[in-house]
Every structure is written in structure tokens, then in C-alpha cells.
Specification:
Blueprint lengths: L1 H15 L11 H4 L2 H7 L8 H14 L3 H4 L2 H7 L5 E2 L3 H10 L19 E2 L3 H142 L12 H24 L4 H51 L28 H20 L1 H4 L4 H19 L6 H15 L4 E3 L2 E3 L7 H23 L4 H14 L1 H14 L16 H7 L4 E2 L2 E2 L2 H18 L17 H12 L7 H21 L1 H21 L5 H17 L11 H5 L1
Antiparallel strand pairs: 1-2, 3-4, 5-6
Helix pairs in contact: 4-8, 8-9, 8-10, 9-10, 11-17, 13-14, 13-15, 14-16, 15-16, 15-17, 15-19, 16-17, 16-19, 19-21, 20-21, 21-22, 21-23, 22-23
Pfam families: GLE1
Protein name: mRNA export factor GLE1
InterPro entries: GLE1, GLE1-like_sf
């Protein structure tokens, strides 16, 4: 192509020019600014010239090469004369590099090699210059090798740095990923913590809600209980008001009746010396007072206790007025009768003086010989007064049951809980009575007394009081009496010594709370009719099981208990009764009499001896009663007691033996041996387990 030919021609022309014939060092860039400094600075020897002169030239002079020895003279002369030689490109290169400047600092112009010859130095200078050039070449080669090594080292460093940078980048990525993972983990933990806190707050709110709901329910329950209590109090107030109103009507009726009797006393006006108008006026005032109370009550509602008390005082005053009037009438009648008798006596004396004395017959009553003895058959039925007493106790027990019927039949859970707590508070302390220390027995007594007195006591970890329910006191009294008798039926029957600590607590409670004592007797008479003593009679049309229950037997599933077990229970209850009548609570009021003392035991013994004996029962009960209570009766009644013992031995033993079969002689023999031993020693021994003064000091 024409353009390519022109390019080659241009290149050839440039090569042929003066500048194209110049030699260029390819490593001049490595020198940097030194190249320019060499052009501008004065010519000077290399820094290695001194070393070459000092070390290389002396060595070469001492050992010249053989080719140069022959020409040494010639060379020596040549050193002083210049020579002209043609220069080659290499020489140009060496010369150009070793070109010098004039002393005045001006620079010679280079001429072409084929036109201008160069002035050669002497051989010594050439050798020095050659050595310098060789050293420079060696140094340049070393520098090139060092540069290559340096480049390789730099490449290795760059490679190492690249690898290190790559590893650092990996580490950075790993740290970044770890940081992200940690941040994510922290975020998740924060979220979980927030979730837990939210759940905890929610549970706390739920708990607070349940607590508030519970409190609200309790308040509602308390309000309902308060309302029911108010309703119950209102009902009781109305019932009491109605009772008081009926009582007022009864009082008014009685006052009116007494007023009629007071008016009827006018027929005795002639007997009385005084005027009856004062009595009648006061009676009318009292009638008007009660009528005014009833009228005020009908207007205001129900009468108060004060109104009833005023009416009762008015009735009592009316009775006193009528009683005083009747006493006046009675005295007047007596005076009239004595006056009439005196007049009659005077008339008889006057008639006797007129008619003379007459003989009078005397009526004499039949007499009984000193050796005579009237023997009457023993009774089968109990005395009427004892039967009335027995019936009164049973009626009182039934009335007590009716009084707390609302509590026992209540469906309310609160009432049921109160009933259970009261029952435990009444029965558990009685179950804990045993032959323990006196101080422990006093704690039990105080707890029972506090419960009956309306004070709160601890039972099952809760505070219990009879005031929690209006029927609570009746319920506790009934259950307490029932538990005392049951302890005699079970505990005393198995351990005879237990009769005394149970009896002393029962006696103390009886003294402070008489109603409990009446309920104890009612339960005792119902379970053991022989403690009255009372032998129930079989009535026509009565079921056999009912009759056996009346006799005291336990009947379960139409099966009657064994005779031994029956006698054991009866023995336990009689022993408890015998212990109660002789013991008193030592910390009570000694000035007051025993509420059911030894006189009742003496009555029981006399009445049971006046009744026909029962096979196996009478002998057992007499032995248990006399073994427990015989010593106390002996000290109380002394000679009379021993007369009764002789009566039993001489008259009652034959009757018991006559009705006892051969298989039931054990109780009879035990009683007979006991009384014979007592008569022999003339003393009834103190019963085993009797509480002494040392017991109460323990």
C-alpha cells in the first residue's frame, strides 16, 4: 500500500540522521534525574576509580600478560603520544559515555565516527576505563538482578498482600455475617423477652383480675351473708316480738282473771274489817297498764323486752295483791272459825253441865308385833315422779334438736361448713380427754367452756364461735352432751380408769352450763335406760327390734348385738354416771352444791333395789356402780349405806340368783365376792384411777 511505503521511508531517514545514530540507554528511566545531572555536571571519574587504581592496576603491573611484555616499551612510549583510531558504534557508546568536557566547563560537539577520529588515551587509562566499564556492567547486572529479585519480592509481597486482603475480606465478611447474626439473635431475644414480659404482664393482669374477682365474690358473699343475717335477725326479732306479744296477751288474760277473782272477793266483804276498794282500784290500774302496753305495741309493731318486763311486774303485783287479799280472807275465816268453835264449845259445856258426863269410846289402831315384818313385792315399774323426770329430760332433748333443725337441714355451703366446724370444736376436745396431766385437762375444759360461752376458739386452724349462727349454741350443747355419753359407751367401757377425767370435765361443764347436764342425762337415759332406772315394757303391736332398741341394744341389719358387748357398753355408761355424781371440777365455786350429786346416786341405788332384778343386767350394773361410787356413798351415808349393803346381801341376792341361769352366773359371783370382801374389811376401796390432788399438780 502507498501509505506503508511512505512510513518505511520516513523511518529509514530518521535512522540515518544524526539523532538516529545516537545510542540510548534503555535504563535511563531507572536513574531518574541522574541522567540530566550527568549532562549538566562537570566530567569526573567514577566513584569506583580510586578502588580500581588502588587494587586492580598494581596487580596488573606486577603480572602483565605475555602479549604485552614485548610491547611494553612501545606501550610506554605510546602513553605519551596520542593515536588516531576509527571508532565503532561500541566505541561511540564507550566514548560518549566517557566524553569529557573542557576545563572551562564548555562541551565539545560530537562528530560522526567515519569522518572524525577520536583521541585515545594511554593504555593505563584505557585499562582503568575498561575496569570502570566492567565494574559498571557488573554493577548494572547486579542491579538488574537485585531489581529482578526486588520485583519478584514485590510480586510475592503483592501476592501475599492480595491473599491477606482476600483473607481479611473473608474475615470481614464473616465478622459482618456474625454481626448480622448476632444482631438478629439480639433482636430475637429482645422480641422473646418482650413476648415473655407481655405474657408475664398478661398473667399478672389475669392474677389481679382473679384476685379482684375473688375479693368481689367475698364482698358479695359477705354482703349476702350480712343480708341473710339481717333477714334472720329481723325474723328472730319478729318471732321474739310475736312471742312477747303472745306472752303479753297471756299476761293480760291472767291479769283479767285475777281481776275477776278480786271482784269476786266482794262476797267476803262482811268477813273483812277493812275496805276492799283499795285492792280493786289497784287491780284496775294494773289491768289498764297492761292494756295500754298492748295498744301501744299494736301501733308501733312488736313489744320490747322492757314492755314485757313491765307487764310481768304488773302481773306479779296483781298476784301479790290477790295473795294478800286471800291471806286476809283466810285469816278472817280462821278467826271466824275459831270464834264459832269457841261459841260451840261454850254451848257444849253448858249442855254437859245440864245432862251430866257420858262415857266415850276410844278407837285404837291395830298394832304390829315386834317380831313382825311386812314383806311387799318389789316393783316392776318405775315411780311416777322418776318417770315424769325422765320424760321431761327427753322432751328437753327433742326441743333442743328442733331448735337447731334449720342448721342441720340447711343446703347452704356456708351453713354446712359452720356446722362441721362447730361439731369438731365440740367433740374433738372431749375425745382428747384421758388420764393425762391435770394442766392439759384444764386446757381442754377452758376450751369447751369458752366455746359454750360464745368466745372464739381455734379448731382445725380456723376460728370457730357459736355466734356464727343463731342456732349454734343449741347445736354445740347437744353434740357435746352426746359426745360425753359416747365416750362413756366406748372409752370408759374399754378403759375403766378413763371414767374419772371425763366425769370431772363433764361435772365442771354441767355446773357452769346446766342445760348441757340435762342433755347428758337425756342421752344417757336414752342409751342406757337402766341409769334412770327404767325397765321399758313391751307394748302390744310393737316391733321386736324397736323394743330391743328401747332396752339399749344396738340393732344393725335386723341383727342384735351380742350380750357381752351390750353389757360392756351399759357398764361403761353406768361407770361414767357413778363418777360424775361424786366428782366436782376443782377450779369451780366450792360454795355451790353439786348440780347432780351423791343424793341422786343414793336415789338410783334405792330405786333399783325396789325393782325386780333382771338377769345378768342388774348384777353387772350394781357391781360397776358400787365399785366406782361405793367409797363416796360410804363416806356420805355411813351406817345407812351399810344397812343397804346388808339388804342386798340378805334379801336381794336370793332374788338375783333365782332368775340367773348357770351360764350367766359370772356377774352375780363377781358382785357377791365384792360385797363379801367389803363387809369383811368394813370398807369400800377407793376405785382404781380416782383423781387425787397429785394429779392436779402435774
Amino acid at each position: 500500500m502507498p501509505s506503508e511505503g511512505r512510513c518505511w521511508e520516513t523511518l529509514q531517514a530518521l535512522r540515518s540522521s544524526d539523532k538516529g545514530r545516537l545510542c540510548y540507554h534503555r535504563d535511563w528511566l531507572l536513574r531518574g534525574e541522574d541522567v540530566l545531572e550527568e549532562c549538566m555536571s562537570l566530567p569526573k571519574l567514577s566513584s569506583y576509580s580510586g578502588w580500581v587504581v588502588d587494587h586492580v592496576l598494581p596487580h596488573m603491573q606486577e603480572n602483565p600478560p605475555p602479549s604485552e611484555t614485548s610491547t611494553s616499551a612501545r606501550s610506554a612510549s605510546a602513553l605519551d603520544q596520542p593515536a588516531f583510531v576509527p571508532t565503532s558504534p561500541v566505541g561511540d557508546l564507550g566514548f560518549s559515555s566517557a566524553s569529557s568536557a573542557t576545563p572551562n566547563g564548555t562541551k565539545d560537539k560530537h562528530e560522526s565516527a567515519h569522518t572524525e577520529p577520536l583521541v585515545l588515551q594511554s593504555s593505563r587509562g584505557i585499562r582503568v576505563e575498561g575496569c570502570i566499564r566492567m565494574y559498571e556492567l557488573v554493577h548494572k547486572m547486579k542491579g538488574a538482578e537485585g531489581l529482578r529479585q526486588w520485583q519478584e519480592e514485590q510480586e510475592r509481597k503483592v501476592q501475599a498482600l492480595s491473599e491477606m486482603a482476600s483473607e481479611q475480606l473473608k474475615r470481614f465478611d464473616e465478622r459482618k455475617e456474625l454481626k448480622h447474626h448476632k444482631e438478629f439473635q439480639d433482636l430475637r431475644e429482645v422480641m422473646e423477652k418482650s413476648s415473655r414480659e407481655a405474657l408475664g404482664q398478661q398473667e399478672k393482669l389475669k392474677a389481679e383480675h382473679r384476685h379482684r374477682a375473688k375479693i368481689l365474690n367475698l364482698k358479695l358473699r359477705e354482703a349476702e351473708q350480712q343480708r341473710l343475717k339481717q333477714v334472720e335477725q329481723e325474723r328472730l326479732r319478729r318471732e321474739e316480738g310475736q312471742v312477747r306479744l303472745r306472752s303479753l296477751y297471756a299476761l293480760q288474760e291472767e291479769v283479767l282473771h285475777l281481776s275477776q277473782q278480786l271482784d269476786a272477793s266482794d262476797q267476803h266483804r262482811d268477813l273483812l274489817r277493812g275496805d276492799l276498794s283499795a285492792f280493786q282500784t289497784r287491780g284496775n290500774q294494773l289491768c289498764g297498764l297492761i292494756s295500754g302496753i298492748i295498744r301501744a305495741t299494736s301501733e308501733n309493731g312488736f313489744p320490747t323486752a322492757e314492755d314485757q318486763a313491765v307487764a310481768e311486774r304488773a302481773l306479779q303485783e296483781m298476784r301479790d295483791i290477790l295473795g294478800n287479799l286471800q291471806q286476809e280472807i283466810t285469816r278472817a275465816r280462821e278467826d271466824k272459825r275459831r270464834q264459832d268453835e269457841e261459841e260451840a264449845r261454850l254451848k257444849r259445856q253448858e249442855s254437859q253441865m245440864q245432862q251430866g258426863p257420858e262415857a266415850h269410846k276410844e278407837s285404837t289402831a291395830p298394832s304390829q308385833g315386834p317380831g313382825g315384818k311386812q314383806i311387799e313385792d318389789l316393783q316392776v315399774k318405775v315411780q311416777d315422779s322418776t318417770m315424769q323426770w325422765y320424760q321431761q329430760l327427753q322432751d328437753a332433748s327433742k326441743q333442743c334438736v328442733l331448735a337447731f333443725e334449720g342448721l342441720t337441714n340447711s343446703k347452704d355451703s356456708q351453713a354446712k361448713r359452720i356446722k362441721m366446724d362447730l361439731q369438731k370444736a365440740a367433740t374433738i376436745p372431749v375425745s382428747q380427754i384421758s388420764t393425762i396431766a391435770g394442766s392439759k385437762l384444764k386446757e381442754i375444759f377452758d376450751k369447751i367452756h369458752s366455746l359454750l360461752s360464745g368466745k372464739p376458739v381455734q379448731s382445725g386452724g380456723r376460728s370457730v364461735s357459736v355466734t356464727l349462727n343463731p342456732q349454734g349454741l343449741d347445736f354445740v350443747q347437744y353434740k357435746l352432751a352426746e359426745k360425753f355419753v359416747k365416750q362413756g359407751e366406748e372409752e370408759v367401757a374399754s378403759h375403766h380408769e378413763a371414767a374419772f377425767p371425763i366425769a370431772v370435765v363433764a361435772s365442771g361443764i354441767w355446773e357452769l352450763h346446766p342445760r348441757v347436764g340435762d342433755l347428758i342425762l337425756a342421752h344417757l337415759h336414752k342409751k342406757c335406760p337402766y341409769s334412770v332406772p327404767f325397765y321399758p315394757a313391751f307394748k302390744e303391736g310393737m316391733a321386736l327390734e324397736d323394743y330391743q332398741k328401747m332396752l339399749g341394744y344396738q340393732v344393725k341389719d335386723s341383727k342384735v348385738e351380742q350380750q357381752d358387748n351390750f353389757l360392756k357398753r351399759m357398764s361403761g355408761m353406768i361407770r361414767l354416771y357413778a363418777a360424775i355424781i361424786q366428782l366436782r371440777w376443782p377450779y369451780g365455786n366450792r360454795q355451790e352444791t353439786h348440780p347432780h350429786g351423791l343424793n341422786h346416786g343414793w336415789r338410783w341405788l334405792a330405786q333399783i333395789l325396789n325393782m325386780e332384778p333382771l338377769s345378768d343386767v342388774t348384777a353387772t350394773l350394781l357391781f360397776d356402780f358400787l365399785e366406782v361410787c361405793g367409797n363416796a356413798l360410804m363416806k356420805q351415808y355411813q351406817v345407812q349405806f351399810w344397812k343397804v349393803i346388808l339388804l342386798i346381801k340378805e334379801d336381794y341376792f336370793p332374788r338375783i340368783e333365782a332368775i340367773t341361769s348357770s351360764g350367766q352366773m359370772g356377774s352375780f359371783i363377781r358382785l357377791k365376792q365384792f360385797l363379801e370382801k367389803c363387809l369383811q374389811h368394813k370398807e369400800i376401796p377407793v376405785p382404781k384411777g380416782f383423781l387425787t390432788s397429785a394429779f392436779w399438780r402435774s
